[in-house]
Design a protein that fits this description.
Shape: globular
CATH architecture: 3-Layer(aba) Sandwich
Order of helices and strands: HEEEEHEEEEE
Number of helices: 2
Structural class: alpha+beta
Helix content: 10-25%
CATH topology: Trna Endonuclease, Chain: A, domain 1
């Protein structure tokens, strides 16, 4: 599988899994897209390398789970790697959080590092799409 950008992953999901998939109207929201038919609120990540455990920020996890709490929505975290596309239902995962010094942003040339709380999700427990 090639290294995708988020738009490639979005198009793949729309063509194969979520025909009604729409992008989040707010580009700064804690999720990237939504499927009303599936009730899935989705965060997308594209990795250029494959890892057995994929990282998620605690703030993002809590924001998505919190937004879906008390509703029929399911918070989904979908990652592409060179070895496939992996979908995690965040309601089924309670990561162990740890602090790490990471780049402030991953999509821009800002190399400044900040402390972030992160957890890891095992691809063996994901649904491979």
């Amino acid at each position: 599988m090639k290294n995708w950008e988020e738009k490639d992953l979005f198009n793949y999901l729309k063509e194969n899994y979520y025909p009604d998939l729409v992008k989040a109207s707010d580009p700064t929201s804690r999720w990237d897209c939504y499927s009303a038919a599936a009730n899935h609120r989705i965060e997308l990540k594209c990795r250029t390398s494959h890892y057995d455990k994929l990282m998620i920020e605690e703030k993002k996890h809590k924001a998505m789970v919190g937004k879906c709490s008390g509703t029929f929505e399911i918070p989904m975290y979908i990652n592409s790697t060179p070895e496939g596309v992996f979908r995690f239902n965040l309601k089924q995962f309670k990561p162990r959080w740890e602090s790490m010094r990471l780049r402030k942003t991953t999509h821009f040339s800002d190399a400044n590092r900040v402390e972030k709380r992160v957890g890891f999700l095992s691809v063996t427990k994901a649904e491979k799409l």
